[in-house]
Task: inverse folding
């Protein structure tokens, strides 16, 4: 398996853990775009949100719930942003589904 985030989940590539459970793993983004920037990934390899199947519905909810718990743990009571870049136009660069949890500063809209 050549997938970067699969290797991170398996511990073959080091990461800074933030949260983990039986279905997901969360770690600090290596190039943070905000004071808090955490990536939440499923342990199972799913290439993108577009690659999620009907049987992944509960897992997708699990990841969103984990993102909210992480934001609370990080003290982001003033708000935060959860982003899922998908495909080339979406700006996805790693082909393993991941949620960005960004916070600790005001987020502009629209995104670039
Ligand atoms: P995306 O562009 O949405 O696919 O997001 C991929 C994210 O993975 C980027 O924010 C990168 O900074 C981050 N990233 C790439 N390699 C690593 C790594 N080894 N550890 C942590 N984050 C990484
Ligand atoms: Zn993977």
Result:
């Amino acid at each position: 398996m050549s997938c970067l985030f699969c290797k991170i989940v398996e511990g073959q590539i080091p990461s800074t853990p933030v949260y983990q459970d039986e279905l997901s793993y969360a770690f600090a983004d290596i190039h943070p775009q905000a004071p808090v920037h955490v990536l939440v990934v499923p342990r199972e390899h799913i290439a993108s949100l577009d690659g999620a199947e009907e049987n992944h519905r509960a897992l997708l909810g699990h990841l969103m719930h984990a993102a909210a718990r992480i934001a609370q743990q990080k003290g982001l009571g003033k708000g935060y942003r959860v982003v899922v870049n998908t495909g080339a136009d979406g700006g996805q660069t790693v082909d393993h589904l991941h949620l960005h949890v960004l916070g600790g500063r005001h987020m502009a809209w629209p995104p670039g």
In short: The chain has three helices and five strands. The chain has one domain: 4-103. The beta strands are 17-20, 24-28, 36-42, 80-83, 99-103.
